[in-house]
Design goal:
Largest sheet: 4 strands, antiparallel
Number of domains: 2
CATH class of the largest domain: Alpha Beta
Radius of gyration: 20 Å
Structural class: alpha+beta
Distance between the termini: 35 Å
Number of strands: 4
CATH superfamily of the largest domain: Lrp/AsnC effector binding domain/regulation of amino acid metabolism (RAM) domain
Shape: elongated
CATH topology of the largest domain: Alpha-Beta Plaits
CATH architecture of the largest domain: 2-Layer Sandwich
Helix content: 25-40%
Length: about 140
Amino acid sequence: MLDHTDLRIIEELSKNSRIKMKELGEKVHLTGQATSARVAKLEDNGIIEGYTIKVNHIKLGLIIHAFIHIYTKSAVHDPYHTYLKEHEKYVINNYKIGGDSCYLLECKFPSNEQLDEFLKGLNKYVNYKLSIVISK
């Protein structure tokens, strides 16, 4: 069971996963060594699964942010998944969901032309409903 200190460690690591253990310890009122042991335990228990970076997609030239509701045409979804693997540079997340659609696809594109090409190819395997992000 996680205590308040464990939750604070997770909160601080979520803000900055590169924080030094001594600095993290000061924030959660532990020594650097005790903090390091707590983090190791959280990792060993699978609570912390890994560390990541936050990428600015706009600076990478990916200016079109789209959410695409996917409606499969058949019970066989392999062609859809294969298409996504072939175009993984655009795919941020592919969630299998319940509700009106089968999947919710989150993508980023450098231009409307690439989005259009992606959608034309996608439509060979599934139907879709497109939403474009206006602001965050």
